[in-house]
Each structure stands twice: as C-alpha cells, then as structure tokens.
Amino acid sequence: MRRPLSRKFLNSRVFHMLAKDQQGSATLEFVMIAIPLFVPLALYLSSVNSSIQNSLTLKNVARQAARAFITSPSEALAPVRAQEVLNSYRTVSSGSSVAQLSLSIQCESNPCLTPNSRVTLTVSDPATSRLASATQVVDAWRSSE
User: Fold this and answer.
1) How large a percentage of the chain has pLDDT more than 70?
2) Would you tell me which of 51, 66, 122, 128 could form a disulfide with 136, CB atoms 3.0–4.6 Å apart?
3) Distances (CA, A) of 56 to 30, 36, 44, 60, 131
C-alpha cells in the first residue's frame, strides 16, 4: 500500500526543486506525440514499398520472358521459352496471385523472329490488375529459318 506524501516533504526544498525541474519533459512530449504519428507513417511506407517492389518484379519477369523469346533458336520454341520464364518465377515466388499470371505476345512482323523486328511481351496479374510490358528487338544478324 502506498503512503501519502507527508506535509514535511511537500514543503521541503527538494520537492520544490524536483517540481520546478523541467529537464526531459520536452523529450517526453515529443515521444508521446511522435509515436502515434510515426507508426502509421511507417506502415504506409511499408505498403508503398511492397507495391513498388511487386511492380518492379513484374516488369523484370516481362523483360526476362521477352529476352528468352527473342533468343530462341526456333519460332516454335520461342513461346515455350517465354512461358518457362514465367513458370520459373512462379516456383521462386510465393503468393496466390503468382499462379494467375498470364503472358501475351505481340509481334511486329510475321514470323515473329524476323531480324530487326520488335516483339512485345506483356505479363498481367489479374489479382492486382497490374500489367508489365517489355519490348525487345530481334537480332539483326539472325538467320531466317
């Protein structure tokens, strides 16, 4: 049980010195105001970081799939190689949206692997409604099939 402060202590010089001393109160006030403000800010920045990281990863997957497509030895093997890049990403990544990624291929010329033609691959994630495209140019010295 706590004892009430005695009148002698309340009138003493030590008590008055302690009561007048404001040292550390600014720090305490800052902490009491800053913590409730900084916690939501940290959560928001974490969410933004996660969103940007997902977008950059999707863009990288599209770029790698496009590179695999244009460096393919044959026209028939090119879409398979691009899909394999997507499958490799699925095995490395976790999450339910990864399984739903889809790939679309647009070629500037027919056949797709014509020298100096552009090939655009688009990877879409229906769960987040994000798209990432990458355009690559087929090697100019590529021999025609």
Assistant:
1) 78
2) 66
3) 37, 31, 18, 6, 11
**DSSP, res 92:** H
- The rounded distance, in Å, linking the Cα atoms of 129 and 136 is 23
Helix (H/G/I), strand (E/B), else coil: 115: coil
Per-residue pLDDT of 28-38, as tens digits, reads: 888 888 888 99
CA distance 20 to 71: 78
Largest CA distance in the chain: 104
Asked whether the CA dihedral 58, 60, 63, 68 is positive or negative, the reply is negative
Query: What residues pair up with 120 in beta bridges, in sequence order?
Result: 106, 135
- Encode pLDDT of 63-93 as tens digits: 999 999 999 999 999 999 999 999 988 888 7
Secondary structure (3-state) at 53: helix
Quickly list DSSP for 7-28.
HHHHTSHHHHHHHH--TTHHHH
